[in-house]
Design goal:
The chain is α/β, with parallel strands linked by helices. The protein folds into 2 domains: 227 residues, Aldolase class I (TIM Barrel, Alpha-Beta Barrel), CATH 3.20.20.70; 63 residues, no CATH class. It is built from 12 helices and 9 strands. The chain has a 6-stranded parallel sheet. β1, α2 and β2 form a beta-alpha-beta unit. α7 packs antiparallel against α8. The two termini are 33 Å apart.
């Protein structure tokens, strides 16, 4: 992005946004970038959101993590951290990131996060930088990770979010990507993979052009707020729902969208399905529509959703 187009959210704007989100039933807040740790007011933003009762998470490349910064984040109320990892060996990861020595810093940071009872998870984009996925678990363990979430390749996005690229590293055929999904499912036997199996299998259906079991809850339970404070239903949607100051819940969208494979939305949607179904049933019963309530409550997808929650229960308890 050109320097003259760069813009950061102010502390007061961040506080106001957190208050509006919390008031509308949104209780998890994830700080992403760019590199969110470069923002001078990040600690204060987290402190305020935590004081409201929000669970705060951070996505970082790890380059700015020091014991002092980690203590500040912990004191602010940060609950969980996701650290980007691009390859199964240090040299290749650091070369791709342009961050020499960052793996040593990540290893030290994980030790300090553990002392402060903050969970960390490696976030690995499925790319051609990883030639052998079986090399990932020992490498991640050497860095101090005990869990990994896989991000699926993104070559285009409709919103203002810039976390995508047209690159040979992520340009897969459907067959190639499907095989990597199979490899990721197999990794679950030896290492904690945060992506639920049911969600991965839905993405495989997506690749094959088959009907998917679970629609995305982006725009209903999950949202993307950009640096101009425009609120989108997700990273992939071209038009914002509204400015954050206009958000009152009436703009929520729930249409069972299956347009993309953004893991953070699709994985969460699978696990949250059971909660939404129970709530839908309660509302139907309150209106006297017991037949509709029964359909919401006694549905095979609820069992699959519960299985996904159980599969990730160890990781979820650490959040």
């Amino acid at each position: 992005m050109p320097i003259d187009e760069r813009h950061s959210v102010t502390l007061e704007q961040a506080k106001q946004a957190a208050e509006i989100l919390y008031r509308n039933g949104i209780y998890f807040l994830i700080y992403v970038g760019g590199e969110p740790m470069a923002h001078p007011d990040l600690n204060e933003m987290i402190t305020h959101a935590s004081s409201l009762g929000m669970a705060t998470m951070l996505v970082t490349n790890g380059s700015l993590l020091t014991p002092k910064r980690i203590d500040e984040l912990a004191d602010a109320g940060l609950m969980s951290v996701i650290i980007s990892i691009d390859a199964a060996e240090a040299q290749k990861h650091e070369q791709n990131r342009g961050l020499r020595g960052v793996c040593d810093r990540i290893q030290e940071a994980n030790t300090h996060f553990q002392r402060r009872n903050i969970s960390t998870t490696a976030s690995v984009t499925m790319s051609r930088l990883i030639e052998d996925y079986n090399q990932l678990p020992p490498f991640l363990k050497s860095l101090g990770f005990d869990s990994v979430t896989f991000s699926y390749p993104l070559t285009t996005l409709g919103s203002s979010y810039l976390g995508y690229a047209e690159s040979d590293l992520v340009n897969y055929t459907a067959e190639e990507l499907n095989q990597r999904f199979e490899t990721v499912k197999a990794l679950k036997r030896d290492f904690e993979v945060v992506n639920p199996t049911a969600s991965i299998e839905d993405m495989q259906r997506h690749l094959r052009g088959e009907p998917e079991q679970f629609g995305c809850l982006g725009g209903w339970k999950l949202f993307y707020l950009d640096w101009h404070l425009n609120l989108y239903r997700c990273h992939n949607w071209e038009k914002p729902m509204c400015h954050i100051t206009e958000f009152d819940g009436s703009q929520r969208v729930r249409d069972g969208c299956t347009a993309c494979m953004i893991d953070c939305y699709r994985d969460s949607s699978v696990m949250q399905h059971i909660g939404v179904a129970v709530s839908d049933g309660v509302q139907a019963a309150a209106k006297g529509n017991l037949k509709a309530a029964w359909k919401h409550w006694f549905n095979h997808k609820n069992i699959v959703s519960l299985q996904a929650v159980w599969e990730q229960s160890t990781w979820l308890r650490r959040l």
